[in-house]
């Protein structure tokens, strides 16, 4: 796996965690030096927390408020415990501040969040299926990106089985977008609770390995040795039998 070092950027902030056994997530959500709560000072346009429990599936809480000032965020952070987390704080660029524009977005057991601004929105719209376009609830470039990715996966893979076909399809779909001049930035996390994909293009994205717990985030959140993912990379995190991070493509 290749890693580099680079300056941090603005826009939204992403956080993904994959664990061997259920853990509490409050450290990265509200207690760490650069927790999502702290980062919401500069990313104040909404927060979302998706926690996966193997018995009950996804539990999702979000609001178009600044996390630092929202008691509902702090209550959700304190109660969050599971084997996987996908979380987000928003600095809006496309789409007004509203609940429907707040990440993460949920489709068919997968949760998704995005960091960056996409200029070529029309390409996404033209290459998303009528079914996926019909699922749009808001006005963000992020939700259109999800519609595009799911349209490709619907054609070439099984959403219930994230196997090699699934990974290869995601690689190809992401490469098509990266190859378009002026397309824009699109870091994203896509997870079903047991498998998490992380893509970097145009914004920073870091990984931290604590053996039984793997983290991926827009910037280092603690003083530990976070490693910067190479631009244009797609990583895959699986939790069975033990959490592992694999570099799929660049």
Could you characterize what this model shows?
This protein has 250 residues and is an alpha+beta fold. It has helices spanning 26-31, 36-39, 71-79, 121-126, 130-133, 141-156, 164-178, and strands at residues 3-4, 13-24, 47-53, 57-63, 81-89, 105-107, 110-115, 187-191, 195-199, 206-209, 213-217, 227-229, 234-238, 244-249. The strands form 2 sheets. It has an 8-stranded antiparallel β-sheet. It has a 6-stranded antiparallel β-sheet with strand order 6-7-8-9-13-14, with helices on one face. The protein is globular, with a radius of gyration of 16 Å.
Keywords:
32% strand; globular; alpha+beta; 24% helix; Glutamine Phosphoribosylpyrophosphate, subunit 1, domain 1; 250 residues; disordered N terminus; 6-stranded antiparallel beta sheet; 7 helices; 8-stranded antiparallel beta sheet
CATH superfamily: Aminohydrolase, N-terminal nucleophile (Ntn) domain
> What is Rg?
16 Å
Q: Percent helix among the residues? A: 10-25%
Terminal CA distance reads 10 Å
- Main β-sheet description: 8 strands, antiparallel
Layout of secondary structure:
Blueprint: E1 3-4, E2 13-24, H1 26-31, H2 36-39, E3 47-53, E4 57-63, H3 71-79, E5 81-89, E6 105-107, E7 110-115, H4 121-126, H5 130-133, H6 141-156, H7 164-178, E8 187-191, E9 195-199, E10 206-209, E11 213-217, E12 227-229, E13 234-238, E14 244-249
Helix pairs in contact: 6-7
């Amino acid at each position: 796996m290749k890693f580099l070092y680079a300056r941090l950027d603005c826009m939204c902030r992403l956080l993904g965690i994959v664990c061997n056994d259920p853990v509490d997530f409050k450290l990265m959500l509200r207690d760490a030096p650069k927790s999502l709560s702290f980062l919401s000072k500069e990313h104040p346009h909404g927060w979302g927390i998706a926690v996966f429990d193997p018995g009950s599936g996804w539990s999702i809480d979000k609001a178009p408020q600044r996390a630092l000032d929202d008691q509902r965020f702090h209550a959700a952070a304190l109660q969050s415990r599971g084997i996987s987390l996908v979380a987000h704080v928003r600095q809006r660029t496309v789409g007004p501040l509203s609940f429907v524009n707040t990440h993460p977005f949920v489709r068919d057991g997968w949760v998704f969040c995005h960091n960056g601004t996409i200029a070529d929105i029309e390409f996404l719209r033209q290459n998303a299926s009528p079914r996926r376009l019909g699922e749009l609830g808001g006005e963000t470039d992020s939700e259109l990106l999800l519609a595009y990715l799911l349209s490709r996966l619907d054609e070439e893979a099984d959403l219930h089985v994230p196997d090699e076909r699934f990974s290869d399809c995601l690689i190809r779909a992401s490469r098509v977008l990266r190859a378009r001049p002026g397309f824009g930035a699109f870091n994203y996390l896509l997870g079903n609770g047991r498998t998490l994909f992380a893509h970097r293009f145009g914004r920073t994205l870091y990984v931290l390995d604590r053996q039984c717990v793997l983290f991926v985030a827009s910037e280092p959140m603690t003083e530990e040795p976070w490693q910067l993912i190479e631009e244009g990379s797609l990583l895959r995190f699986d939790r069975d039998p033990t959490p592992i991070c694999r570099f799929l493509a660049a």
